[in-house]
Amino acid sequence: MEMSHSHRHSNSTAKLGAAVLINVLLSVVQFIFGIFSGSLSLIADALHNFSDAGALVVALLAKKIGGKAADDQLSYGYKRAEILGALINSTSLLIVGVYLCYQAIVRYFNPQPIDGWIVVWVASLALVIDVVTAVLTHKAGAKDSMNIRAAFIHNVSDALASVVVVIAGTLIILYQLYVVDLVATVLISIYVIYHGLDLVKKSIRILMQAVPDGVDLQKVRRSLISIEGVEDASHIHLWQLDEKMTFFEGHILISATAEQKNISHKIRALLKDEYSVGHTTLELKTSDNT
Questions:
Q1: Backbone CA torsion sign across 219, 222, 227, 230
Q2: Could you tell me the residue ranges of all domains in the chain?
Q3: How high is the pLDDT of residue 272?
């Protein structure tokens, strides 16, 4: 079992490593041809691809650190390293998005001729490579890790950006609509910023130990009080260690005739079944001791 886990980990690391190399090479090609063609959207796509390479490196490091076992210094373990990785990557998405919007505005007031054919050919090549890297990243664990998912969204947004750039290049060739290049850049920026904000919000909520999305703390309290033998529930805290592990702690007041072990079992079962709580800490008090 341990060997199987180790094999999966090294396999996903190899996939992410390959995706990093591909993104760096693609970024260099796009940037060079973006300068030669005069296309800001192609340069924008190059910068976005380069940020993808950085995102994948961060994801790799965070994944490696997050896999370390708990120790005396970090008794909860290193799982939140992946959440920090997701926060860094999502923040970089926002920075790239805002920068591209700024460049589009600057270029609007300083228009330059654009070679549409170079744009179309390079963006088409980039599209194929973006799809390959997105598949590699997805297979490396995007479903199970917010950290890898942030890097995956970088890749998917790049693929979509390449589609937009191809369309822009085609319109430039057919109709000399150079403004389309700027519109394409802004659309890429908006998409990047949208996903960046979503991931930043989710990452910060976990790091700030917020109640998980979709969970009403007062409803949790009412659920606990509805258990026979429970008279009150206070000092309730519900938070996520990472995107998979949810923790609960609280003070539970039970009737004098209730059996503590039975009540504890019922509470843990309710929290696990209804709120996916994997770790529960309870302080039980009987009403005659208050």
A1: positive
A2: 2-207, 217-289
A3: 93
